[in-house]
UniProtKB/TrEMBL annotation:
InterPro entries: GPCR-Ligand_Int (IPR052954), GPCR_Rhodpsn (IPR000276), GPCR_Rhodpsn_7TM (IPR017452). Gene3D superfamilies: Rhodopsin 7-helix transmembrane proteins. One of its GO terms (cellular component) is membrane. This is G-protein coupled receptors family 1 profile domain-containing protein. Residues 372-382 have a biased composition (Basic and acidic residues).
Length: 382
């Protein structure tokens, strides 16, 4: 008696029929993945929360870019980094998160349309995510220079050098991610008893690279190295700002409450950005390291449902990191808020003139204070 197996069914509903010449067809129904609560929550998050994050993030990034380019903040070289960060964060949301929304809302995956669409889309997804992290690193290092070398900062952190740094960082990340053009593509393989063709999969011979080496490389470039630099830089900034505050109190014999508030606000913002960056990006990185891709293995329906929710949560956290920078800027102090008001209302705030006058007086006071401190013997050396 001959028996053959035919696998049929649509998305999320699979049945296996056993056919023979003497018996009627019998069907063993497998539970649909759509019946699991985890799957339903995952799909809802991709459909609706994704759209909220995209709209909120795009609005904030556009406003941030306009503030950095068309207000008084444009005079600072660091505004170039922040403008670039807004552009790269927009790319993260449109290219990366936009694909996830279209997959779940319209069942359209751009990577499945063509082999080269797969290669190009993956390349730019990783590029924008990496560039977003490293622009934050560049901004923080720029602030370290401003804090430790205030008199030389204008000659070190020029607009021309800032553009050169952005170009060098971009070239480095292109080198890191260029492997996507020859390690992924169309591949045929056997899944259970069925021949399957994927337009976007790891090519044969590169499985070990993607399962063993690339997750660690990606984790280091995308999260671990940037966070380490951010953490160390923030410690250096905090230490220098505390020393400067103590020095001012000793020399002026008075507490400059406004300056202290600004210092505390900037310090909190920098530390917050660093820990939010790690908190939002590390789950996705850790998930990539723990879960090893295996395109030849067929997961169970329960595993598919659980994976749908887990991937949705960790990836939305990662993408939210590119949507919340505008909020961080608004919390960072009066300068950005007044520049935003200047952009929206079309009027230059009087705060700018006051700030320029106050900053000149403060800088001169700090220079004189620093000279007096340099002449004083160190208590540890007496």
């Amino acid at each position: 008696m001959e028996t053959s197996t035919v696998i049929t069914g649509g998305a999320g509903n699979t049945s296996v029929q056993y056919l023979n010449s003497t018996m009627a067809a019998t069907t063993a129904e497998v539970p649909s993945v759509e019946e699991f609560l985890e799957y339903q929550l995952g799909v809802a998050m991709w459909k609706y929360m994704t759209l909220v994050v995209i709209i909120f993030g795009l609005t904030g990034n556009v406003l941030s870019f306009l503030v950095m380019k068309f207000t008084s903040m444009n005079k600072n070289a660091s505004s170039i980094y922040l403008a670039a960060l807004a552009i790269f964060d927009t790319g993260v949301l449109l290219v990366g998160l936009g694909r996830q929304w279209s997959r779940n809302m319209f069942a359209f995956d751009i990577r499945a349309t063509h082999e080269w669409a797969c290669k190009i889309h993956i390349f730019f997804t990783y590029m924008f995510i990496d560039l977003s992290a490293w622009m934050l690193v560049c901004v923080t290092i720029d602030r370290v220079i401003l804090v430790y070398l205030p008199l030389k900062a204008k000659s070190i952190c020029t607009r021309k050098k800032t553009i050169i740094v952005i170009c060098l960082v971009t070239l480095f990340l292109v080198g890191v991610n260029c492997h996507w053009f020859f390690t992924v593509g169309q591949r045929d393989f056997t899944k259970l008893i069925e021949e399957v063709q994927l337009t976007c999969a790891f090519l044969e011979g590169f499985e070990e690279f993607h399962q063993t080496y690339w997750p660690l490389i990606d984790a280091s470039v995308r999260s671990f190295i940037p966070f380490t630099v951010l953490f160390v830089s923030n410690i250096l900034i905090i230490a220098q700002l505390v020393r400067a505050a103590i020095r001012r109190k000793k020399q002026m014999n008075a507490s400059t409450s406004k300056t202290d508030d600004a210092t505390r606000s900037m310090t909190i913002m920098l530390v917050m950005i660093s820990f939010l960056f790690l908190s939002f990006t590390s789950p996705a990185v850790i998930l990539d390291i723990i879960i090893q891709p295996d395109i030849t293995r067929a997961p169970t329906v329960a595993e598919k449902a659980s994976e749908k929710l887990t991937v949705a949560v960790v990836n939305l956290l990662m993408y939210m990191n590119s949507a919340l920078n505008f909020v961080m800027y608004c919390l960072s102090g009066k300068k950005f808020r007044n520049s935003l008001r200047e952009l929206l209302c079309g009027k230059k705030s009087t705060y700018r003139k006051q700030t320029n006058t106050q900053s000149m007086m403060t800088n001169q006071s700090e220079i004189n204070s620093q000279k007096n401190v340099d002449r004083m013997p160190d208590s540890n050396q007496v």
